[in-house]
# Entry
Amino acid sequence: MTAPRKAIMGAVAAALAGVATARDGSFERNRLDKFLPAELPGYVLWDGGHEVEGIDTGGAQRALTLDVDVFVTAATGDALSDAIADEAAAVTAALLSDVTLGGVAWDVREAAMTDPDYSREGHSLVAEFALRFVVIYETASANPDLPA
# Structure
């Protein structure tokens, strides 16, 4: 059986890969290198930390924080603004369409979006922002690698 955290990360990665494919973009986990302009929009899923919200004899409820960095490009400021809104909506819809992530989580919650960072790449404008989500799940109280 797959550990709950690994199953959650796999489900989120699959959802984001689907967004990237549908939008003719790129997706990777924990990517450190910049995306090339032809790879945009780009999505990076970062493994996050977790908090234990409650423990009893049956299990421990955990809240896993996940950040998704999104990179978009456009030729004009208005188009870049639209791209930011469109990509934020696409990622959020993908992760909230099944808040159980196929049965491996109790809930997925949208937590925040950072202010975009702007730059210029040649004649194009580029924006980078992060979306934060919190995934609620349960494990065995003494072993986070085992489901409750």
